[in-house]
Design a protein that fits this description.
The chain has 268 residues and is an alpha/beta fold. Helix content is 42%, strand content 17%. Helix 2 packs parallel to helix 3.
């Protein structure tokens, strides 16, 4: 397998090359800071995958992708960017999804595998819907929560996209200005226990991780419209209609980002 990397930032390029060389396919990797040089090399060095920085002077990644598609249509293209909003134009080219800086090794592996396979892996049977009203589905059936706050807690953890949060942080989000006293601490423990019991009863216990007093959702264990949106999946971006976690005020910050990216897509 051969991978072509193009990034005008030499430091970023070196990191991308190093991570590509660690992939299990043990690919040959070529890197360029100049897009024109990369195109010249492509004439004699066919690449299976091209990883292109979007924002480059003179010829940006989008223009370079069009040239690569014209000269080597069999080359799968992945975009690399520090700014998700600049990747929206990529979907008009019908290319693979994009990678965010700083580059995550596991995400790189997944995207390269996806590009080479030509199709995504089978989705897990657990799905979270965040656009509009929040719902958790297991094998297509909605999960019933015994406590509404347990459902909101799961929604909040999904909003954090795998980032861990403390009990105090959870309380501040779900109860806003209320005092986090002893009685509220005990009630939060009841909510957390209820959530875990509900997930376990529905065969979804694996999505939740409690470690060193911190709680988080494991994104790799479920399918979620929010996660797919930020991964650059065109269908997920198209599915967003301006509504996110309708019942929960803490969702407004994420909603503002979704709106910005969605509007950027539709103005191009």
């Amino acid at each position: 397998m051969r991978i072509l990397c193009v990034d005008d930032d030499a430091s970023s390029l070196r990191q991308t090359i190093a991570l590509c060389r660690r992939l299990e396919q043990q690919p040959e990797v070529m890197g360029f800071t100049d897009p024109e040089s990369a195109l010249e090399d492509l004439e004699t060095w066919a690449a299976d995958v091209a990883i292109l920085d979007i924002r480059m002077p003179e010829m940006d990644g989008l223009a370079l992708a069009k040239e690569i598609q014209a000269r080597a249509p069999e080359t799968a293209i992945l975009f690399l960017t520090a700014h998700p909003e600049y990747a929206v134009e990529a979907f008009r080219l019908h290319v693979s999804r994009y990678l965010l800086k700083p580059l995550d090794p596991e995400r790189l592996r997944e995207e390269v595998d996806y590009a080479l396979r030509g199709k995504p892996a089978a989705p897990p049977p657990i799905e979270a819907q965040t656009f509009g009203e929040f719902e958790l589905l297991v094998n297509g059936a909605p999960v019933h929560f015994q406590r509404s706050k347990a459902k909101e807690l799961l929604a909040y953890l999904i909003d954090r996209q795998g980032r861990s949060v403390s009990r105090a942080g959870i309380f501040a989000a779900l109860w806003e200005d209320e005092q986090y006293d002893r009685s509220r601490q005990k009630y939060l423990d009841v909510v957390i226990r209820s959530l875990r019991q509900t997930l376990e009863a529905n065969g979804a216990g694996e999505i939740l991780e409690l470690k060193h007093g911190m709680l988080r959702v494991r994104p790799e264990t479920l399918r979620c419209d929010l996660f797919r949106f930020f991964q650059g999946e065109a269908a997920a971006i198209e599915a967003y209609r301006g509504e996110y976690m309708n019942a929960y005020p803490w969702g407004s910050n994420t909603e503002a980002i979704l709106v910005q990216i969605s509007q950027s897509r539709h103005t191009h």
